[in-house]
Amino acid sequence: MNDFINVKNFKKTFLIMFFSMLAVFIVCLCSFFPGVGMNDGLNILRSETELTSQFSVFYVYFILFLHNISDALTGGDQLTIALYSVIQLTLTAFILTIITVWTCKKNVPVFVKWCTYCFYLFHPIIAIYSIAMIRDTLFACSMVMIVILTYDIITRSRSVKKKSFWILYAFSIAGTAVLRSNGIFIIVPFLIVLLIAVKKTRKNTAIIFGIVIGVTVISSFLKSNERGDMFQEKVGIPLQQIAAVVKNDGVISDDDREFINKIMPEDKIKEKYNPRTSDPIKWSNDFNRTYLDDHKRRFVKTWFNIFRDNPGICLNAWVQCTYYFMLPVQEGTVQTFFTIEDVADNTWLVDFLKERGIHDRPLIGEKINNVIRKYYYLSKYFLREGVLFWMTIASLIVYRVRSKNRKAVIIYLPFILLWLTMILSTPIAFSMRYVFAYVIALFPVTLGLALIKNKH
Predict the structure, then answer these.
(1) Which helix (H) or strand (E) holds 316?
(2) pTM beyond cutoff 0.85
(3) For 199-254, what is each residue's pLDDT tens digit?
(4) How far apart are CA 436 and CA 123, in angstroms?
(5) Complete DSSP assignment for 155-196
């Protein structure tokens, strides 16, 4: 067993870990077949290329590619979701195996190695996210890959000399950059810091930077303009702050009030306002997205005036809609995904599911499956978003002190930048999928690097 966890036979250890994770994820898929639906993925199937203005171009086209296969073979989308689930769970098992083997090769306590492997293998939240029809799972996997490979760069590991290392690094960085809209705001600052701080790898880092720019340019050309600029997605927190001021009858000039009413009537804002998320407002039928897209500067000016005159309300609105990302509070349950019907909470989605033949059809007998699902429902009881982030920061501090590595912060920088994009631009109080990277990093990075011995 020690030879296995300490990777004395690389090929054997890798294959055992990969196929064991694959088997567990397949059981999860059989329980929730054809997979775990999510509004975003189902909306892409419904609206097709129109949603490239909102979601990653590559993510949208991947789903539509699977849709075309499913439509040609079955005339529905049950197979689309099943194919997506199979491909994602396979990629997830492969990447988590790489992370686990990397951990096992490092000079960390044996219990950390076993915790990493067993956590990925047995914890229900990992299996659920491996089959969930969301881009966040692979985004999180890519980000953790960046962190562990950056550790090898900073500590001058021998693996950095291999071409395969830089190919894997390039894929991880490109994946993080394109899978979510905030990815580029994480990767660009990170690569700039890496270029400045690590001289010996500047050539390879610069090449990867060029790849990221190229992929981003291609992505922009492939985007659809059918939905306009989707400016409301970029100013979610300012929108939430303006809505809070309206809701609380704050100070608003006549000119600003007139402008706000052209975007959305005040009475509708008061009716739809939710302190935890801006979604009810920015996706309301009463919200004039076209007008907002055409008057961006005027919106920024209005927001500035309202913030200046109502700083207390605006700051309170910001805290309320980023609460669980900012503070290390442990209460309630985390975001997980179960049957397709569980997310069918609006009329258009219910109708679309029926039209496209999408429905929950477990491949396991009902009695046994009821027991299995009780296990997967436990995935809701996990550490909260802010708790995981502050544990990550604690790990950085402990690693920096114990290792005396002055460049330690570079290793953790993607996690820090991820958190900043959440609290600065994401107007929702909680969403585990946005920071799922902290979950994947819990044992190999958060615990592993904190306990790694000084000898790298």
Answers:
(1) helix 311-320
(2) yes
(3) 999 999 999 999 999 998 888 888 876 666 678 777 889 999 999 999 999 999 99
(4) 14
(5) TT-GGGGSHHHHHHHHHHHHHHHHHSTTHHHHHHHHHHHHHH
